[in-house]
Amino acid sequence: MELKKAFGIALKRQRLNKRLPQEAFSNVSSRTYLSTLERGLKSPTVEKVHEIASAMGVHPLTILADCYLLQDETLTIDDLFSRIRMELAQSERPA
């Protein structure tokens, strides 16, 4: 699945899980822009992902993790977080 499409599905899934209409994001985004994101037509900036996630009361990584799990159906949530833990632990080591 294309990354933009997976992000859109993940975003919509999180929004619907919180039972929020697109209009609930008017302080951070227009309904039209949110709709284009949810349909996988545009890619948001990191700042916009943060703003939208904050408006939903979820961590931005929740949306992104859901996105990558949708993109690769063979990937499990445990595998994804194991990889992330390992990569973050490696980045903490002195060079």
UniProtKB/TrEMBL annotation:
Organism: Geopseudomonas aromaticivorans
Name of the protein: Helix-turn-helix domain-containing protein
Top-level taxon in the UniProt lineage: Bacteria
CDD domains registered for this protein in UniProt: HTH_XRE
InterPro entries hit by this protein: Cro/C1-type_HTH
HTH cro/C1-type domain: residues covered: 11-64
